[in-house]
Design goal:
Elements lengths: L1 H8 L5 E5 L3 E6 L3 E7 L2 E4 L5 E4 L1 H6 L7 E4 L2 E2 L2 E2 L2 H16 L13 E6 L5 H13 L4 E6 H8 L10 E6 L4 E7 L2 E8 L3 H16 L1 E2 L2 H11 L10 E8 L5 E7 H24 L3 H10 L1 E4 L8 H9 L3 E3 L6 H11 L1 H7 L7
Parallel strand pairs: 1-9, 9-10, 11-17, 17-18
Antiparallel strand pairs: 1-2, 2-3, 4-5, 4-6, 7-8, 11-12, 12-13, 14-15, 15-16
Helix pairs in contact: 3-4, 5-11, 6-7, 6-8, 8-10
Length: 351
């Protein structure tokens, strides 16, 4: 199987995919990251005709007529709408793999390495695999996202020592202790960046009787949200609809209020990290204290989160370089190394 894949891989554009709840990244072997787009699709409600995928579809969220729905087909890191996910994967794979032109040799379909949350069920794994194969892959290999993130962050995972990675995405938070190329302890919770957005929405409704949209909440979180008080505190405009009058309204919300709104989610993430460390063998815990905790994923960019984790765990905590791309870069490295792929894959390639 690997010999055939290696021969075909010399000609095909083998790809690594980070199929995220909020964003999809696609890396082409030998070329780097080619696609960074929202995991959003706009379709006709009845006929399922596709109007837009990715960035164009995200612009339509909350702005479409009744018969067109712009949605995210993944929820909490797993496929919620199989057909829509297939359309997204087909679109991105076709985009990077190119069209077959008459007179030129046909390019073999690509091998695909794709990251999945560590807590998914066998049924959910098969759904990802099936969607990727139906989208045009020759063979599909699944690896757990925290392992891919650790590889992408250049952690020495093959050494006989403990390394801990915390991958906080939009739908899931993945925490894993890795040693000798395997996951020793891991926890996966479906609480992450999306929950932070909902925290802000719920806070605005309860405190100010203001209804705000998900995109607005996300933008406010990015601009002024924090998990721990660092630097100067400021205030930001939060726009929405007054639930009493039904009219547009704007309130000024402080960094402290946003931190209060986000506190339940950030506390849950920190407690899960602590629980993971408590379940770790003592020898590996000593390594973790020496090497520190590594945060990655889009939601790890929340201001003050590294400081909060370090304070609560009493362990040095760092943010990995370019945390948005660690999973896809790790999956890309696995594409290049057959022996590493054999070691970290969750399932064999299906053709």
């Amino acid at each position: 199987m690997f010999i055939v894949d290696t021969i075909f891989g010399s000609f095909s554009h083998d790809i690594a995919i980070d199929l995220g709840t909020a964003n999809t990244l696609v890396l082409v072997r030998g070329k780097g990251i080619m696609i960074r787009e929202p995991t959003v699709i706009a379709q006709h409600k009845k006929t399922k005709q596709v109007y837009a995928i990715g960035s164009e579809a995200k612009k339509m969220v909350g702005r479409t007529p009744a018969m067109i729905v712009a949605s995210r087909p993944l929820k909490d890191g797993v496929i919620n709408d199989l057909e829509a996910t297939e359309e997204i994967l087909k679109h991105f794979i076709h985009k990077v793999h190119g069209n077959h032109r008459p007179g030129l040799p046909r390019i073999p379909r690509p091998r695909v390495v794709i990251g999945i949350p560590s807590g998914v069920t066998e049924v959910e794994r098969r759904a990802v695999q099936e969607a990727t194969l139906n989208a045009g892959a020759r063979s599909v290999f699944l690896i757990e996202e925290p392992m891919a993130a650790a590889i992408g962050a250049d952690l020495p995972i093959q050494e006989p020592a403990g390394n801990i990675i915390v991958d906080i995405g939009a739908g899931t938070t993945e925490i894993a202790v890795i040693s000798l190329g395997g996951i020793v302890v891991n926890k996966s919770i479906r609480i992450a960046g999306d929950e932070m957005d909902m925290d802000i929405i719920n806070y605005a409704r309860a405190r100010y009787n203001l209804l705000v949209g998900e995109r607005t909440a996300e933008n406010v979180k990015i601009e002024a949200g924090s998990a721990y008080p660092i630097g100067s505190e400021n205030r930001i405009a939060l726009r929405g609809r007054d639930l009493a009058t039904g009219l547009p309204s704007t309130i000024m919300i402080s960094s402290g209020e946003l931190r209060e709104a986000l506190s339940n989610t950030t506390r849950t993430i920190v407690e899960t990290i602590k629980d993971t460390i408590e379940d770790t063998p003592p020898e590996l815990v000593a390594d973790i204290y020496e090497r520190g905790i590594h945060l990655t994923g889009g939601a790890s960019l929340l201001s003050g989160l590294t400081e909060l984790v370090a304070k609560e765990t009493k362990i040095p905590t760092t943010l990995t370089p370019d945390p948005l791309t660690t999973v896809v870069r790790g999956a890309g490295k696995v594409l290049e190394d057959v022996s590493l792929l054999e070691k970290v894959k969750v399932t064999s390639g299906v053709t």
